């Protein structure tokens, strides 16, 4: 598996960045080469509800994930990402003050291609598939959006419905923080979500797309052997490379 991943990486090195999805793969302890200017301060992450997080860079760039017009901050963000699973993950009427509205799917059925730098934040995507309402597959109906700022790489899985391929993992590159759907029904089983996390190896996991505390507790129990867990009464978390935990940790925001 390691040989296959290395071979894929060698092949992808020659591609332009827009053909790749996420953050540069780095060796443990190696310095990161950033495309967006990196500040020395932390990235702020606020859980807004359902699958929406507000991500704020040290330079003040603000992005909201799976922007749906409901779980939104008081002031509009600079960037809004959306996905096509259903209306709690996108809106056809985003706030007109949002400068960059990024849809994780294309109406013509092709894969979305996102490669955007705003200030000290870079946003890219990895197209994935979703189930349609008839039980079939809508190819490229979802994107894993990747946000890179201040040396921290954050992946938002949104409505991911399948495990990742080796090529997907190479395209994602190194990921520090994963926002993972843990409902266990509407996206993937909790066992499959845990398997995806094992594929990505993040240092922090932020559960989302849950509906009751019992659902989150069941997920935390499932991964207890491999992840520490922290329940926070706060909805906001500051993350920097210096403060990433040594042991992979699940942090449940706003559920202390």
Break the fold down into its secondary structure elements and pairings:
Elements: H1 2-12, E1 43-49, E2 52-56, E3 62-64, E4 79-82, E5 100-103, E6 115-118, E7 121-131, E8 137-149, E9 152-156, H2 166-172, E10 177-181, H3 190-200, E11 204-208, H4 213-222, E12 228-231, E13 236-239, E14 249-252
User: Which CATH class applies here?
Assistant: Alpha Beta
Order of helices and strands: HEEEEEEEEEHEHEHEEE
Please identify the structural class as seen in this structure: alpha/beta
Helix count, per DSSP? 4
Unreliable runs: 1-20, 26-34
Beta-strand level of the residues, as a percent range? 25-35%
Rg, rounded, reads 17 Å
**What is the distance, rounded to the nearest whole angstrom, between the alpha carbons of the first and last residues?**
39 Å
Largest sheet: 8 strands, mixed
Query: Looking at CATH, which topology would you report?
Result: Metallo-beta-lactamase, Chain A
Indicate the mean pLDDT.
86
Query: What number of structural domains do the residues give?
Result: 1
Work out the helicity level. 10-25%
**Shape summary:** globular
- What is the CATH architecture descriptor? 4-Layer Sandwich
Sheet with the most strands: spatial strand order: 6-7-8-9-10-11-14-12
What is the total tally of β strands? 14
């Amino acid at each position: 598996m390691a040989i296959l991943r290395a071979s894929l990486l060698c092949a992808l090195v020659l591609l332009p960045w827009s053909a790749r999805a996420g953050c540069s793969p780095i060796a443990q302890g190696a310095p990161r080469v950033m495309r967006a200017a990196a500040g020395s301060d932390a990235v702020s992450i606020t859980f807004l509800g359902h699958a929406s997080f507000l991500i704020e860079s040290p330079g003040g760039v603000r992005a909201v994930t799976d922007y749906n017009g409901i779980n939104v901050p008081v002031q509009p963000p600079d960037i809004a990402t959306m996905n096509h699973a259903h209306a709690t993950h996108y809106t056809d009427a985003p706030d007109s003050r949002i400068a960059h509205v990024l849809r994780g799917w294309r109406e013509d059925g092709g894969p979305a291609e996102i490669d955007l730098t705003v200030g000290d934040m870079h946003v890219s995507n990895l197209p994935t598939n979703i189930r349609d309402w008839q039980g079939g597959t809508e190819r490229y109906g979802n994107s894993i959006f990747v946000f890179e700022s201040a040396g921290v790489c954050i992946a938002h899985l949104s409505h991911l419905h399948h495990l990742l391929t080796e090529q997907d993992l190479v395209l994602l590159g190194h990921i520090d923080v994963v926002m993972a759907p843990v409902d266990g029904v509407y996206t993937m089983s909790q066992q499959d979500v845990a398997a995806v996390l094992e594929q990505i190896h993040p240092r922090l996991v932020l559960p989302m797309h849950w509906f009751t505390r019992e659902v989150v507790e069941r997920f935390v129990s499932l991964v207890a052997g491999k992840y520490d867990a922290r329940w926070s009464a706060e909805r906001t978390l500051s993350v920097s490379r210096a403060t990433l935990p040594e042991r992979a940790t699940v942090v449940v925001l706003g559920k202390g």
